[in-house]
């Protein structure tokens, strides 16, 4: 099943995001221990097209619990970067 993770940064989180960016990328490089696969992911950006303000993931996983465990273990979550995280099931229609 596919799940979308939509995570919006808390106000003023950009310096913390940048400080944890390498750990976050390393974490995303191997998701096998969670039984999930990243279909696509990347930062959400402000209207300037560059300033990172959140994260978006499309995850393939056996169930919601696997996605929640994956998300909780992300260094960005541990650093308290995200103000609000929404995990929603997704049905692919195109693409």
UniProtKB/TrEMBL annotation:
InterPro entries: Dimeric_a/b-barrel, Sec-metab_biosynth-assoc, YCII. Transmembrane segments: none annotated. Residues 1-90 form the YCII-related domain. Signal peptide: none annotated. PANTHER family: PROTEIN YCII. Belongs to the YciI family. This is YciI family protein. It comes from Bradyrhizobium symbiodeficiens.
